[in-house]
Write a structure and sequence with these properties.
Blueprint lengths: L5 H16 L6 H4 L3 H12 L6 H15 L5 H15 L9 H25 L11 H17 L9
Helix pairs in contact: 1-3, 1-4, 3-4, 3-5, 3-7, 4-5, 5-6, 6-7
Length: about 160
């Protein structure tokens, strides 16, 4: 496993923020993945010595500030998702591909459920069935992250 440069993480975080802010059409917004969350969770699991819960919380705060949503909403959900991701971080290298996909779907589903819960507490309406579709596009983006940057691998012994 090649060590990851911190500049690579920052660059992908900025690219994820740009894609997060890209204006989507009406039908595209329904399936838009949460780019920054996928990127931050990937780096949190791949390189926890460079990317920690604080960085993920900061990324969520950037999403809140840039999209005009309830301040702290994405920061809280990103941090909770990152914490749940870190619980099994050392065991993930022992998971096969399908177990890892199920775990990642669980993480992204928890994030969507927390966003929904916070919106309902703020007086929002219950969304329709399409609210969960970004979880599928998050998983597709996760697959592209694995193709571009590599599998989550165990460090080699010297």
């Amino acid at each position: 496993m090649k060590p990851v440069k911190f500049s690579t993480i920052v660059f992908t975080m900025l690219v994820g923020l740009v894609f997060q802010l890209y204006p989507w059409s009406n039908s595209g917004i329904i399936i838009r993945p949460d780019f920054l969350l996928v990127i931050m969770i990937y780096w949190l699991l791949q390189a926890p010595y460079h990317c920690n819960i604080g960085w993920v919380w900061f990324a969520g705060l950037l999403v809140d500030l840039s999209t005009g949503s309830l301040l702290g909403q994405h920061a809280l959900t990103f941090a909770v998702t990152a914490f749940l991701g870190l619980i099994y971080q050392r065991r993930l290298v022992l998971f096969n591909r399908w177990q890892l996909y199920l775990y990642v779907i669980f993480l992204f589903g928890v994030q969507r459920a927390l966003i929904l819960l916070l919106k309902l507490f703020a007086g929002g309406e219950i969304p329709d069935w399409t609210y969960g579709l970004p979880v599928i596009s998050d998983l597709i983006l996760w697959q592209f992250m694995i193709i571009w940057f590599g599998e989550l691998t165990r460090p080699k012994k010297l």
